[in-house]
Specification:
Low-confidence stretches: 1-29
Largest sheet: 5 strands, mixed
Shape: extended
Mean pLDDT: 81
Number of strands: 7
Number of helices: 21
CATH topology of the domain at 440-572: Heat Shock Protein 90
Structural class: alpha+beta
CATH architecture of the domain at 440-572: 2-Layer Sandwich
Order of helices and strands: HHHHHHHHHHHHHHHHHEHEEHEEHHEE
Strand content: 5-15%
CATH superfamily of the domain at 440-572: Histidine kinase-like ATPase, C-terminal domain
């Protein structure tokens, strides 16, 4: 069994090394950690480990969650929140579990998950009612008020509820009753703040009075600097909204002075910078407005990057958490095995050495295989890029030769035929240039691809001044389908330049491309006088080429000439 101990120790070191490497690659927090929150979390965790108290450890994880969340480090915040929730759920209905459900609701609200937000806050309210927690009730009623105040309707979810201000007022009244009975100045201040926001939604100047009362309580009764700043920013917004610019200017200066001396999280800083932009725009101080707009962009960009990285590393965090739990289980098994297997140490040493050698050899082999596959992948990528590059250059050479040939011809029909061929080749040149420039080796980005083809055809026919209306979704299309699509677009735009533009004083070209389910829909239309539909045009090589490419795409198409010329096509994408 000693073999098992040594092998477990080796695996433990290996996993620990992997954990360090993974977390070393995570991005740093958006803002410095609040020393008060963080030192409190460290102290609680130290005490919990000394006492081996899992309840206290769950509280430490919760404090870490608050510390990292306030700093904008949502990855670490999520990891500690998950740890705390797993411990508290095993204890049953407690105040701490209700508090965690409340934060789950807050996270769901921030990501517009209406059903999840309502589910979590109802759980939190049920726990608060059962254990008769005034703090839990106030927290749940406030969240319900905010949920009913929010507009949940989106294009994806049109049946979700719109703002229900009467319901929000109902929950705020419940909240106000509890706060007044408990004589809790902090809770009362938060109710005043919520009512102020609600009245702002109703465009009522009474909101200013509630915000001022809230500021008074936070400043003189509660004496919490972060609360003063948060409410002051809301009051600043109210002053600006109701055009009290003098009071807004004075208050803005006070807030800036406080921010210089007190820690403020990223969300409040962003909101304050937005209000300063609004204030200076309203007072036509454009220099100041630009300065604070740049500060706002920096904060929002940082938050956006953190959110994106947090989403990408979510699975990694869950995996690391489970891996640490397995490490704890392995350690416990190791302790138990030491008690039971003292008599078999010599045999275990031999087996441990053999297993260690096998593991080391296997690790080296797998590492070499990984490096080999990595080199092959890089080589293949280089070959694909080189192939695309050479094809693009060869097509460009052919296009140049055709251009030289066209200059020596005098027959207009021959010149037109070579020009058309040159445009078709140009569409393939554009495709291969897009393949060469992008990281998507076998796919092209349709918005840029279609725009470049349109501009090339317009420039060739002398219509570069005409700006087409392009409505193209962000779609990546495989090269096998992009080539026929490019040729079809080339012919349609060429016909537009030849037959539609000359007949209109205000020529118009519309191109729309979007994905519906697993199909791509293309619409090309102009305001010409139906000259596309003449028998001569239908029999041209260009239109025969269009039909051939449509068959290659297994597409369905139709042409409508009731209002100009409209070509519609859909195919599997």
């Amino acid at each position: 069994m000693l073999t098992y101990n040594l092998f477990s120790g080796f695996i433990y070191c290996w996993l620990l090394f992997g954990t360090v490497v993974c977390f070393a690659q995570l991005p740093s927090q958006a803002l410095p950690l609040n020393p008060v929150y963080h030192s409190k979390a460290i102290a609680i965790e130290k005490e919990a480990l000394q006492k081996k108290d899992t309840v206290l450890l769950a509280e430490a994880y919760y404090q870490y969650f608050k510390s990292f969340s306030a700093a904008g480090d949502y990855q670490n915040a999520h990891a500690y929140f998950t740890k705390s929730l797993r411990i508290q759920e095993k204890r049953g209905e407690t105040y701490e579990l209700g508090r965690l459900y409340f934060y789950l609701c807050e996270m769901a609200v921030s990501t517009l998950q209406y059903e999840d937000a309502l589910k979590h806050i109802r759980k939190s309210l049920a726990i608060a009612k059962k254990i008769q927690s005034a703090v839990g009730l106030m927290r749940a009623y406030k969240s319900l008020a905010e949920i009913h105040k929010q507009n949940w309707q989106t294009p994806q979810y049109p049946r979700r509820p719109s703002p229900r201000l009467d319901s929000a007022q109902f929950y705020y009244q419940k909240l106000l009753d509890i706060a007044q009975k408990s004589n809790n100045n902090e809770a009362l201040a938060e109710v005043y703040e919520g009512l102020g926001k609600l009245l702002m939604d109703r465009n009522s100047p009474k909101a200013i009075g509630y915000f001022e009362s809230c500021c008074f309580l936070f400043t003189n009764k509660v004496k919490r600097s972060s609360g003063v700043i948060s409410v002051s920013v809301n009051l600043l917004s109210a002053y600006i909204h109701f055009k009290k610019y003098n009071q807004a200017t004075v208050l803005a200066q006070k807030i800036e002075d406080m921010i210089d001396t007190v820690y403020v999280n990223a969300k409040i800083q962003a909101k304050f910078q937005q209000e300063l932009v609004n204030l200076y725009k309203a007072t036509q101080n454009w220099k100041k407005a630009l300065e604070h707009s740049e500060k706002l962009n920096k904060i929002e960009y940082k938050e956006l990057m953190d959110d994106r990285q947090g989403a990408l590393s979510k699975l990694s965090i869950v995996y690391e958490t489970e891996k640490k739990e397995k490490q704890i289980q392995l350690q416990q098994q190791e302790i138990n095995s030491r008690i039971e297997t003292e008599k078999s140490q010599q045999i275990s040493i031999v087996l441990a050495l053999v297993l260690l050698a096998v593991t080391a050899v296997a690790s080296i082999i797998f590492y070499n295989l990984y490096r080999k596959n990595q080199r092959i992948g890089l080589k293949n990528q280089e070959l694909v890029h080189e192939q695309n590059h050479r094809v693009k250059n060869n097509l460009q050479t052919v296009s140049s030769l055709l251009s030289l040939q066209a200059r020596q011809l005098t027959d207009p029909t021959a010149i037109q035929a070579i020009t058309n061929s040159q445009l078709r080749i140009q569409s393939m040149v554009i495709l291969h240039r897009r393949l060469y420039d992008t990281e998507q080796l076998a796919h092209v980005f349709l918005p840029a691809f279609i725009k470049e083809i349109t501009e090339a055809v317009h420039k060739t026919f002398g219509y570069a001044h005409i700006i087409p209306k392009l409505t193209i979704e962000n779609i990546y299309l495989h090269a096998d389908k992009a080539i026929p699509l490019g040729l079809i677009l080339n012919e349609l735009i060429t016909n537009c330049c030849k037959y539609a533009y000359p007949t209109q004083s205000d020529p118009l070209l519309l191109i729309e491309c979007k994905r519906l389910n697993d199909e791509i829909h293309l619409i090309v239309s102009d305001n010409g006088l139906n000259s596309h539909c003449s028998e001569n045009v239908k029999k041209t090589f260009g239109m025969k080429l269009v039909r051939a490419q449509i068959e290659q795409l297994y597409a369905q198409f139709q042409i409508d000439t009731s209002k100009g010329y409209q070509f519609s096509m859909n195919f599997k994408g």
